[in-house]
């Protein structure tokens, strides 16, 4: 209160001297706060200097008469702090009136405005009567120059003072707001015409003292506590003042002092009922009375102690078999009947387990950990409580606590109930729980309601029991809560592995001895499960731990059944360990067995499930799986579902692509299309050591090497470019068998001879039957090493322009397509298949080979090695020797007697099914050219053992050149470079085969017309020579591979048969094998007849014959 005040108090009667009994009176005035904290001197009082700043005191006497010896003596005794000494107003003998005694006290220092002024004085009652009591006055001065006066006057009753009576009032305060005392005058005026002598007034003390404090407010009062626990209750002064002392008593008045201080703690064993203590506030505790001021009353602080019924079920703990109603009988919770205080206390929180709703303080109430029912989440088992205190839902005898991991510690007392190394607290799914120090225990030690549920775990922190306790998380919805589930998301990967724990024996549980708190040694205080992709779902609950769009199941063990593609293993869980179906190595025993370590395809130390580039080929998994990653961060786009899978990846994640069908999905395949060129090279990555993996380090641990990581110091990629698509056909090079669409397969253009040789069926894909022992997706012929990774050479760059051949359609100045059977498909002359230039070409099987050149539109592959052969031969039936400069006659051409489609689709030629055809204009004759068409021939390529590799119908020209249907191109065979027999066959001539000739990838030429016995298969009887040129023997009119004039199956009869056995008849302008001399006519007799030509082939030996000698 910002004011000084004046107060008078009446004193008791004192003994008077025998000659003059005195009526004593005590007056006190305005009090101000004195200095506190100083101890009294031994046996005495504080000095004024200690309890009120020093000052001066003086006395004065004045009168209108003569009074000898009148004076104010010893004025300084009114400021010496000694109540036994005083300043005396003395009146001598004399005569007169209006004599005045004045005591002046000057105060120094800037006193506190809440102080009061204290004055103690006595009046001589034998001299001064009540009617002159008013002659005593107190005038006080303030530091601001204003004054105030207190006169007794006729208001004696209002002051509560009487002469010789009793005090009916403690005094009257005079307010002087905002003032501070500087001086006090105490004056006594004698009545007129009174002649008295002797002591009039004694002034013992004048000083500033503290204001009387108010009764203190108390915090902690009015509570009710059960005597189940310690009844110790602490009361605290609300907003205590440092200038006051608080004293606690056992009674409202008087009583025994219990303690001094701002707080007080009761006994730990208070009796039942209400227990009170009382506290008062004391000002200037170290100053002598009356400086010390005490609050007018004491404040009562109380606590009510009730009988012990912890769970409030109406059954006292002493008779309650389940004293906390968690469904677990006391006897199974370590209750010590003979000494309850010695009962087990698992979490050491001072509340024994049998009274603790969360005995291990893991944030999961015991009722849930024991498998009980708690629908309302109050921490207590549901149902009516029996007479013995057990809730109905717990059964007649209570719950038997579950020990999921079999470590001897039931779940309710086990911080890791499934021993997966992840604390139950983390697996509970209760995000409100706080465990900053990762000790598996809820942080804090505040348990106001003493129910054993601490801090953030308690939904009703001031009421015994919980409220709305969340149901335990069951991420995969298999009925086994995560804290008891060894595979919480059912992705086939045990939680201990997803948390990075140690599980050498593969039993799904963290290794090491089990600590007293139930956590395995190798897990420390419990594994902190990473959230690799930062999506807010930790890995053990995340079906796509790296957000690459591929489910963890598919990335780690795609062999596990997931028919509905939900990212979870299909099947049942008979042992209830949370590991389902094929993922459980011990399906009938809790736990796993021989669980394999997490798959780490590229051996970079980051398992595939957390690796954004699982094979380290420089192509992020999301792109290799065909996912959407518009921002190039290496993660599939879209909002993250509750199961951790990005929206664009669908409910169960992307289905991994296996472009080449080798059983290794692209995300784990260093050569996704088996074209012999590693993905890292096809996507433009750096691979200086040829190991098929992107070079560099991985500082941020996202599995993407620095040379291809757009964010090398942050988990994830940044601005990852779209996979290279050299030919723009919509299929990235690493999945495209002809990356430049030039009609030559990438395999052939790679220049890797070993890889090319591995394409046994010549479809542009290395064959993968049992030849990838290291499982890196690079097949042995192209691999170069037996360990994961490769040692394959860089693709060739023939023209040295920095663009490898496989994506360069023009090598130097030459268009590669011109050296293929598909030259005509490049209608715009850019060196590529025109219809596929902008992705417009149909590619039914998605192998990057347009259907128009794909030999197998239904299966991956179909663009093998096409070896072009320039062959030359002459047909004896048309060959004219020197007459036409060693060129064949083109009579059929002249007569326009050609088949526009190849004629070898007969049994004699194995029903060749080629579709070669030409327009009629092809056979237009030009007298100035030696390149007119003579006829169709059939070229065949065979292995050393005679196995047919490929064959094509082609045109043979006048000059002997055998060409494609465009009359220009070489004939192309789908064959790998190697050694082969080349055979030329004709519809009525005996065929010829070469000995084995070597065919390089670039192709070769062979001239049958200049061949020798050494270069031709068979003997010289298999061919004829005219003018030094080797020619195919004519006359095989019946197509049986022999030339005969007589005997069975002779060709003469075939000619005659064609003429209807009319020996003198002939047919002109026909295209038939019976026309052995190829002049367009069939004659048996007469000029240029075919019979005589047949006989000529046999050297006119009518009984001779010649057999075809081909491979």
UniProtKB/TrEMBL annotation:
One of its GO terms (molecular function) is calcium ion binding. Residues 783-793 have a biased composition (Polar residues). Residues 318-426, 452-508, 530-745, 776-850 are annotated as: Disordered. Residues 365-381, 494-508, 620-636, 678-696, 728-745, 804-829 have a biased composition (Basic and acidic residues). InterPro entries: Ig_7, TSP_type-3_rpt. It comes from the Bacteria. Residues 213-305 form the Ig-like domain. Signal peptide: none annotated. This is Ig-like domain-containing protein. It comes from Taibaiella chishuiensis.
């Amino acid at each position: 209160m910002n004011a000084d005040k004046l107060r008078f108090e009446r004193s008791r009667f004192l003994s008077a001297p025998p000659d003059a009994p005195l009526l004593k009176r005590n007056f006190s005035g305005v009090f101000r706060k004195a200095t506190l904290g100083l101890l009294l001197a031994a046996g005495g009082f504080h000095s004024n200097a200690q309890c009120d700043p020093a000052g001066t005191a003086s006395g004065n006497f004045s009168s209108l008469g003569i009074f000898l010896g009148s004076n104010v003596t010893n004025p300084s005794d009114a400021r010496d702090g000694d109540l036994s000494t005083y300043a005396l107003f003395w009146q001598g003998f004399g005569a007169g009136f209006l004599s005045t005694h004045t005591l002046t006290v000057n105060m120094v220092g800037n006193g506190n405005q809440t102080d009061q002024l204290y004055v103690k004085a006595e009046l001589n009652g034998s001299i001064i009567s009540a009617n002159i009591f008013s002659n005593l006055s107190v005038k006080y001065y303030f530091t601001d120059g204003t004054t105030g006066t207190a006169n007794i006057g006729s208001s004696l009753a209002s002051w509560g003072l009487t002469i010789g009576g009793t005090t009916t009032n403690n005094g009257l305060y005079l307010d002087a707001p905002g003032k501070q005392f500087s001086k006090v005058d105490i004056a006594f005026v004698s009545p007129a015409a009174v002649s008295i002598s002797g002591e009039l007034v004694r002034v013992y003390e004048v000083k500033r003292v503290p204001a009387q404090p108010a009764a203190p407010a108390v915090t902690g009062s009015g509570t009710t506590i059960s005597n189940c626990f310690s009844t110790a209750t602490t009361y605290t002064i609300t907003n205590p003042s440092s200038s006051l002392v608080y004293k606690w008593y056992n009674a409202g008045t008087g009583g025994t002092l219990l303690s001094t201080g701002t707080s007080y703690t009761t006994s730990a064993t208070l009796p039942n009922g209400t227990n009170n203590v009382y506290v008062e506030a004391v000002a200037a505790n170290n100053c002598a009375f009356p400086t010390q001021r005490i609050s007018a009353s004491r404040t009562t602080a109380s606590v009510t102690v009730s009988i012990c019924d912890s769970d409030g079920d109406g059954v006292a703990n002493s008779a309650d078999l389940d004293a906390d109603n968690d469904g677990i009988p006391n006897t199974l919770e370590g209750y010590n009947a003979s000494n309850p205080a010695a009962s087990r206390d698992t979490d050491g929180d001072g509340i024994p387990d049998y009274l603790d709703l969360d005995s291990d303080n893991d944030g999961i109430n015991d009722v849930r950990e024991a498998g009980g029912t708690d629908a309302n989440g109050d921490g207590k088992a549901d149902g009516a409580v029996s007479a013995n205190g057990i809730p109905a839902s717990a059964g007649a005898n209570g719950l038997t606590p579950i020990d999921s991991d079999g470590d001897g510690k039931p779940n309710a007392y086990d911080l890791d109930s499934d021993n997966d190394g992840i604390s139950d607290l983390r697996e509970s799914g209760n995000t409100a729980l706080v465990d900053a120090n990762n000790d598996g225990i809820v942080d804090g030690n505040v348990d106001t309601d003493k129910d054993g549920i601490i801090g953030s775990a308690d939904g009703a922190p001031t009421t015994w029991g919980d409220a709305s306790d969340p149901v335990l998380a069951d991420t995969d919805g298999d009925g086994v809560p995560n804290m008891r589930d060894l595979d919480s998301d059912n992705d086939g990967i045990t939680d201990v592995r997803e948390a990075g724990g140690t599980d050498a024996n593969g039993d799904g549980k963290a290794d090491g001895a089990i600590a007293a708190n139930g956590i395995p040694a190798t897990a420390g205080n419990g594994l902190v499960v990473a959230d690799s992709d930062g999506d807010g779902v930790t890995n053990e609950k995340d079906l796509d731990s790296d957000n690459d769009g591929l489910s963890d199941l598919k990335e780690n063990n795609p062999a596990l059944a997931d028919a509905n593609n939900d990212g979870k293993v299909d099947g049942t869980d008979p042992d209830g360990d949370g590991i389902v179906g094929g993922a459980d190595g011990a399906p009938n025993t809790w736990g796993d067995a021989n669980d394999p370590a997490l798959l780490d395809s590229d051996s970079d130390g980051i398992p595939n499930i957390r690796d954004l580039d699982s094979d380290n080929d420089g192509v992020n998994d999301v792109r290799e799986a065909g996912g959407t990653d518009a921002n190039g961060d290496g993660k599939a786009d879209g909002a993250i579902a509750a199961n951790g899978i990005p929206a664009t990846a669908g409910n169960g994640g992307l289905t991994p692509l296996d472009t080449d069908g080798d059983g290794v999905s692209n995300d784990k395949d260093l050569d996704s299309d088996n074209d012999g060129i590693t993905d890292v090279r096809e996507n433009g990555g750096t691979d200086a050591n040829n190991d098929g993996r992107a070079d560099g380090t991985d500082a941020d641990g996202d599995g993407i090497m620095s040379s291809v990581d757009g964010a090398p110091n942050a988990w994830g990629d940044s601005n990852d470019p779209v996979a290279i698509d050299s030919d723009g056909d919509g299929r990235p090079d690493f999945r495209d068998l002809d990356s430049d669409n030039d009609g030559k397969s990438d395999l052939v253009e790679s220049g890797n001879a070993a890889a090319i040789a591995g394409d046994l069926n010549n479809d542009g894909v290395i064959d993968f039957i049992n030849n990838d022992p290291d499982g890196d997706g690079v097949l042995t012929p192209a691999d170069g090493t037996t360990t994961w990774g490769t040692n394959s050479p860089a693709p060739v760059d023939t023209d040295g322009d920095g663009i490898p051949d496989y994506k360069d359609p023009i090598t130097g100045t030459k268009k590669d397509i011109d050296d293929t059977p598909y030259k005509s498909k490049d209608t715009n002359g850019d060196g590529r298949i025109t219809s596929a230039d902008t992705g417009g070409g149909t590619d039914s099987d998605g192998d990057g080979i347009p259907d128009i050149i794909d030999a197998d539109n239904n299966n991956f592959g179909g663009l093998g090695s096409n070896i072009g052969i320039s062959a030359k031969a002459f047909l004896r039936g048309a060959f004219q020797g020197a007459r036409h400069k060693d060129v064949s006659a083109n009579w059929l051409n002249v007569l326009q007697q050609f088949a526009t489609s190849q004629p070898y689709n007969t049994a004699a030629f194995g029903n060749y099914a080629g579709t070669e055809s030409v327009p009629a204009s092809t056979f237009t004759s030009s007298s100035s050219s030696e390149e007119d068409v003579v006829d169709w021939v059939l070229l065949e390529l065979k292995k050393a053992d005679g196995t047919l590799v490929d064959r094509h119908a082609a045109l043979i020209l006048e000059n002997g050149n055998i060409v494609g249907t465009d009359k220009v191109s070489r004939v192309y065979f789908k064959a790998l470079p190697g050694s082969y027999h080349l055979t030329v066959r004709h519809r009525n001539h005996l065929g010829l085969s070469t000995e084995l000739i070597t065919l390089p990838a670039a192709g070769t030429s062979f001239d049958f017309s200049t061949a020798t016995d050494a270069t031709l298969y068979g003997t010289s009887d298999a061919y004829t020579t005219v003018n030094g040129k080797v020619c195919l023997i004519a006359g095989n009119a019946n197509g049986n591979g022999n030339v005969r004039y007589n005997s069975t199956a002779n060709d003469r009869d075939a000619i005659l048969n064609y003429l209807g056995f009319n020996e003198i008849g002939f047919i002109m302008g026909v295209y038939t094998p019976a026309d052995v001399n190829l002049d367009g006519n069939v004659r048996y007799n007469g000029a240029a007849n075919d019979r005589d030509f047949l006989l000529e082939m046999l050297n006119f030996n009518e009984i001779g014959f010649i057999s075809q000698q081909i491979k």
